[in-house]
């Protein structure tokens, strides 16, 4: 189960990294609150949603780590439920 949770964390890190690369590669007014792609960013990176709501800034490294931790916690929940449901059958 450790490997599955580590895989979830790596996916979370990759998702946040891809969004960071997109933000660096696009035009300067990218990733503003009025941008329609921000809905997808907020859905896949929960730390961004929290930062927008509380109006605080987070560094790139902190957002990468926070997203990896969020995905790892979500993976822990999913893998625990999956094992429990698989055990009951």
Describe this structure in words.
This protein is mainly alpha-helical and 89 residues long. The chain has one domain (2-88). Helix content is 78%, strand content 0%. It has 4 helices and no strands. α1 (2-25) packs antiparallel against α4 and α2 (38-44) crosses α3 (46-54).
Offer a few descriptive terms.
0% strand; single chain; elongated; 89 residues; mainly alpha
Overall, the morphology is elongated
Unreliable residue runs: none
Number of domains: 1
Order of helices and strands: HHHH
Q: Topology, please?
A:
Blueprint: H1 2-25, H2 38-44, H3 46-54, H4 60-88
Helix pairs in contact: 1-4, 2-3
Q: Concise description?
A:
The protein is mostly helical. It has four helices and no strands.
């Amino acid at each position: 189960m450790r490997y599955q949770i580590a895989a979830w964390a790596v996916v979370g890190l990759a998702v946040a990294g891809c969004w960071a690369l997109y933000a660096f590669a696009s035009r300067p007014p990218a990733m503003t609150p009025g941008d329609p792609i921000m809905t997808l960013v907020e859905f896949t990176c929960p730390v961004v949603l929290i930062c927008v709501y509380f109006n605080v800034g987070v560094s790139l490294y902190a957002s990468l780590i926070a997203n990896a931790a969020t995905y790892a916690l979500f993976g822990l929940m999913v893998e625990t439920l999956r094992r429990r449901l698989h055990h009951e059958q």
